[in-house]
Amino acid sequence: MGMKGGGGGGGGVLGGGVNNRRIVQRFRQLVTSNGGSGVGSVKVKLLLWCCVFFTLLLFIGRAASSFMGWTQYHRNNISFQTSSSLTPRKGYTLLINTWKREDLLKQSISHYASCARLDSIHIVWSEPNPPSKSLRNFLTHIVQSNSINGREIELKFDINVEDSLNNRFKEIKDLKTDAIFSIDDDVVFPCTSVEFAFTVWQSAPDAMVGFVPRVHWVDQLQEGSVDRYTYGGWWSVWWMGTYSMVLSKAAFFHMKYLDMYTNQMPASIRDYVTKNRNCEDIAMSFLVANATGAPPIWVKAKIFEIGSSGISSIGGHTEKRSECVNKFVAEFGQMPLVSTSVKAVDSRNAWFW
């Protein structure tokens, strides 16, 4: 019985070989019968190429899966061996400018305190009266309620005697993070957008990375004379497809630029900002561009304005900003701003990318 069973197995193999030979013979007959037909010849060649193609795909797929398994194994080993020596990167400091709008300040702090990588909050306070006890208590409670799972958010008021827009960039000695997220109290961005912008900044920590782009261009090109520049708002950026600044009302930059703005930038520029109560954000853009020779980075995100219209809605705003640009060019001795068309987009929130 054993021998018969074995013979039956052999017959199965032989039968399979006969079947294979019949398939090959049938395939040869098909080729021969179509030999005189141009269309048939093309079909046969196409069939052959398809067979070769799928065979290669099968081979590459198996090789790739084997390689990926090897790579994953070694990646796991590497991460296991080095994880003990890695330390988590620090988060960022929220530097928020405010002026007699406690309700907006409360809304902004309540929102940003829930952002995952926020490390500390510094409120730039330039009002004649110090912050009230009720305001301090409210903000302290909000921050403490978000300090969970060992996460502690520092809250400080940076009190200034002089009322000047330069105060928002005054040097801070005890900062715990390299990254500064400069923000106005009347604009809010989703935490997901803020965290994404922070990762973009980490890839280019010397650059300004922000949500509000602006542009400049040469208005009058004069031979043998000083060029005249014009400042352009959002619609100019949209029309031209380029930008050269991101406003500090919503931007990341390195803490070192606070020191440079306070102690190294020409005092005449700070005096101009104080006198005209405008253009401190343009001055910061000039400072960073002059130090890096590179453009800023615009991060696309939804912006929610929770306050009334600001100075940008006042008549003559563009003309005043253009005057600032030309004044700063004269003080720096050159035009440091660099135009670009690069835009960072979080693909998780985009339909097409």
TrEMBL record:
Q: Which metal ions or organic cofactors does this protein require, according to UniProt?
A: Mn(2+)
A GO CC term attached to the entry: membrane
Which molecular function GO terms apply here? glycosyltransferase activity; metal ion binding
* Membrane topology of this protein: Single-pass type II membrane protein
Chief location of this protein within or outside the cell: membrane
Short name of one Pfam family: Glyco_transf_64
Q: Where does the record place the Glycosyl transferase domain? A: 92-346
Instruction: Identify the keywords attached in UniProt to this record, alphabetized.
Output: Disulfide bond, Glycoprotein, Manganese, Membrane, Metal-binding, Signal-anchor, Transferase, Transmembrane, Transmembrane helix
> What subcellular locations does the record give?
Endomembrane system
Protein family according to the UniProt entry: Belongs to the glycosyltransferase 64 family.
**PANTHER family from the UniProt entry:** GLYCOSYLINOSITOL PHOSPHORYLCERAMIDE MANNOSYL TRANSFERASE 1 (PTHR48410)
Q: What is this protein called?
A: Glycosyl transferase 64 domain-containing protein
The species is Aquilegia coerulea
